[in-house]
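Contributing new records

If you add data, match the layout below exactly. Sequence lines come first and carry their own label; structure lines follow with theirs. Keep one chain per record. Anything else will be rejected by the validation script.
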Amino acid sequence: MSEPLSLQMVGSKRLGGAERWFCRFSAALAEFGIPAELAVRAGSELERLDLALPLHRLPFRTVWDLISRSAVSRLMRRIRPDIVQTYMGRATRMTRLESGTGPVHIARLGGYYRLHPYRHAHAWIGNTKGLCDWMVQQGLPANRVFHIYNFVDPPRPHTPERVAMLRKALDIPMDAWVLLTAGRLVPVKGHVHLLEALSLLSAEIGGRPLYLVLLGDGVLGPGLMAQAAQAGLNRRILWAGWQPDPAPYYQLADLVVFPSHEEETLGNVILEAWAWSKPLVTSRFRGAREIAHHGEDAWCVPCADGPALARGIEQVLQDPRLRAAMVAQGQRRVRKAFGRRVIMDRYLELYRELAGR
């Protein structure tokens, strides 16, 4: 019996977190030979990417647009998928399928969104247990809500020469500690508390100068730069902006710091740190409480607490045995629970179940 064919649909114009996951997930579907086709918004940033699967361009103009809804319906009739998996509100609201008479509609959620645009789906996937519990509390049927974590891609390291060139370009001394944080410069990521922590730390720890590299851009950029300047941190902070390939930055890092607020759903940076074999200091937001274990695979501190973050960073940097133990445990966690094969097997199992295969 053939495997179920899925149609993966997203109607966004720009690349954000959900859209980047869509790209990574599509690449994994292709890599493991799981039958799938894609539908994206015509003229969007997604349309210009090489997504390695059959690609359909749909209008996805507004959720009330009859032309766009008609285009979705025609595509369904033409390719006859067993599963239709939608991301975000636009594609989900334009997908209207009757139960028990055709494709199964799965809405995949990566955050605590307003549920009204998603309630008409036949099943729902949440990327944390906490999110799934919340969906059930909001009235979705428990037997149709499924928990599947995100996977983390295996590292694709650059050469030592490439990393050395990056260090030189950033003007970071060879003996420096390099802290790395990655994420959009938006309130939920907690950068303001990380800068506060850096201002409380000595310029050197154990005789080694301390530098912070920030990967990402966003609306808080100017305010954070002003905060850094006022605290006299400009010479210790490197504003790297958004990077399509963060690999050499992870290779450069001695410690990954992830200071998000409680509202953060999962926190893919935690998985990235483990995959890249980097020790991690993270706040105890709801996603971290679910997947990270203090003192074992991460050092966890309260949210929105700059002094606690500073103490955690200093303690981890001063304890090589702790760093090594956390790195080893993080690697084990990735292999066991967050690897591509593990997560894709779970998706295929769910597709088979819902399609009756």
